[in-house]
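Please check the following for our workbook:

***
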Amino acid sequence: MTEKILLNTPLYTFCRQLDTANITDLSLFTPDTKQVWLDKIALLRKQLTALPHLAGQVILRLPMGLESGEVDAVVFYRGIIFVIQLELESTDYKASSIARVYQTTRQLKDLTTLNKELYMVPVLLAAKAKPQAGPLAASQDLLFDTMCDSGEYLSALIEHFSNQFKADEIDAENWLVQHYRSI
């Protein structure tokens, strides 16, 4: 596992200006892995572009430490952190995948004192599954249950959370510094 993120960019740049040919670290992957990441980026861009406000940050392939692997995507939007696991070939929402993204988000939540004050939403995107509605259930420490989506309604899901739960904007660069100090 590499300890380097694949991409850290403002949401607006990710949605409107990103040229995947300029993501140099993609060239380090095998052709198959590179294509998977290009497909993940395309899915995220398509959905995130539909958000009414493109203020925020997108981080792809966030390392979580030696034993924990990495997070596919982290989206900072209107003061909420969305931790997204993308399963492009999955036709259903496997219990193990739901649990894994929740556990990863829990680990992220407990990693720094900064995270303890922030809303965090684990999201499982199973691209070939049918969209699935779910309740907005949160623990007392502002960690929500895993939300499941095919990717089709990701922007609506994110916008709904941001309208329901008001929070201060997150300084993504400071957040990343704290993250790397803690892993």
In short: The mean pLDDT is 93. The chain has six helices and six strands. The first helix runs from residue 11 to 17. The chain has one domain: 7-182.
